[in-house]
């Protein structure tokens, strides 16, 4: 099967990164470090990026990674304690880890988009991670502008949202043309997911960010209502929203920009893995004007605004409702 080795490397490294995140959370070391743009990062984001970049470098030495984080902050002397902590957690999974190597692995994620590259969000939903809510470790392979593989680890997401107290911890895997699967992190139990072809009565609701700055909630809700959704939207952090639509637990994920942030552009690592999981599960993804998402132009999707992700059967109605309001 095409992309088999890439898939195995991605799955193994995302599982290790997920374990690192869970461990850091359990050890109560998940604290916000402020980045220059004032957004938070934690030792878990940096450790997860180190593990995954190391695994890609070992298996595919030529491959470029376009990742969210870099080691600039961590190289400063006042961060030596955090660097030591990260190195210790990474060493649990990668025996040859040292502080210098960890810094270099993290910085392997500073590549540029090209013909073939990976894009990595070591923790998507860092704010969710800090709150103890949902987050995702997201890795995707892009070739010739197309997402070919997506792996998304969601350590705190229930296997089934209808059983919120049930087992948690899921990995989503999709390969172009080969479908999407869900793997239970605890047991390895695997099942195909194809829940995004048609909406139904029980999932006729939308999902959106917990963080109100990340999406225009009033507009999102107006569109959901315009296509007939009356149920309360599901608030979920991270790319897990794509997975929830893929599983058929919601039918629509809208991420619409606020008029107050006209210059905000979405990052490729915030969407690539989620988008292929949803499409392979039968769903549709585009920007708010119906344009395909551009994953290989830049790390920021300069030519796209907003996101529509939905089950296939309601996509046209959502797009039409949106064009009426904007
Ligand atoms: N003003 C904004 N509009 C849209 N997305 C934003 C934003 N500010 C930050 N984000 C992105 O929102 C992501 C989290 O998404 P969500 O709201 O769906 O949980 C963040 O990813 P990180 O947590 O990886 O930094 C960040 O890239
Ligand atoms: Mg971030
Ligand atoms: Mg993100
Ligand atoms: Mg992130």
From TrEMBL:
CDD domains: PAP_phosphatase. GO terms for biological process: phosphatidylinositol phosphate biosynthetic process; sulfate assimilation. Keywords: Hydrolase, Magnesium, Metal-binding. Mg(2+) binds at residues 68, 121, 123-124, 270. Its cofactor is Mg(2+). GO terms for molecular function: 3'(2'),5'-bisphosphate nucleotidase activity; inositol monophosphate phosphatase activity; metal ion binding. It comes from the Bacteria. It holds the Pfam family Inositol_P. It catalyses: adenosine 2',5'-bisphosphate + H2O = AMP + phosphate; adenosine 3',5'-bisphosphate + H2O = AMP + phosphate; a myo-inositol phosphate + H2O = myo-inositol + phosphate; 3'-phosphoadenylyl sulfate + H2O = adenosine 5'-phosphosulfate + phosphate. Its EC number is 3.1.3.7. The keyword Glycoprotein does not apply. The keyword Transferase does not apply. Coiled coil: none annotated. InterPro entries: DPNP, Inositol_monoP_metal-BS, Inositol_monoP_superfamily, Inositol_monophosphatase-like, Inositol_monophosphatase_CS. Belongs to the inositol monophosphatase superfamily. This is 3'(2'),5'-bisphosphate nucleotidase. It comes from Scytonema millei VB511283.
């Amino acid at each position: 099967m095409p992309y088999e080795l890439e898939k195995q490397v991605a799955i193994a490294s995302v599982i290790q990164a997920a374990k690192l995140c869970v461990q850091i959370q359990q050890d109560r070391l998940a604290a916000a470090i402020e980045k220059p743009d004032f957004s938070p990062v934690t030792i878990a984001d940096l450790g997860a990026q180190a593990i995954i970049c190391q695994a890609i470098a070992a298996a595919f030495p030529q491959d470029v990674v376009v990742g969210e984080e870099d080691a600039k902050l961590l190289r400063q002397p006042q961060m030596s304690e955090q660097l030591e902590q990260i190195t210790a957690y990474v060493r649990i999974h990668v025996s040859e880890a040292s502080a210098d190597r960890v810094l270099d692995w993290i910085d392997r994620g500073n590549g540029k988009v090209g013909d073939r590259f990976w894009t990595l969000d070591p923790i998507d939903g860092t704010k969710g991670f800090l709150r103890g809510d949902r987050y995702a470790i997201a890795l995707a392979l892009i070739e010739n502008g197309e997402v070919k593989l997506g792996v998304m680890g969601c350590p705190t997401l229930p296997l089934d949202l209808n059983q919120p107290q049930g087992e948690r911890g899921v990995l989503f895997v999709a390969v172009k043309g080969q479908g999407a699967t869900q793997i239970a992190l605890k047991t390895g139990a695997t099942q195909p997911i194809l829940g995004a072809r048609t909406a139904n009565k029980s999932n006729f609701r939308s999902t959106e960010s917990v963080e109100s700055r990340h999406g225009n909630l009033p507009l999102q809700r107006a569109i959901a209502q315009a296509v007939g959704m009356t149920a309360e939207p599901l608030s979920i952090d991270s790319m897990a929203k794509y997975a929830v639509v893929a599983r058929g637990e919601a039918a629509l994920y809208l991420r619409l920009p606020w008029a107050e942030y006209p210059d905000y552009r979405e990052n490729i690592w915030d969407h690539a893995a989620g988008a292929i999981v949803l499409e392979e599960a039968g769903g549709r993804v585009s920007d708010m004007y119906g344009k395909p998402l551009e994953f290989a132009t830049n790390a920021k999707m300069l030519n796209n605004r907003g996101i529509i992700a939905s089950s296939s059967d309601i996509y046209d109605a959502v797009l039409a409702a949106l064009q009426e309001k904007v």
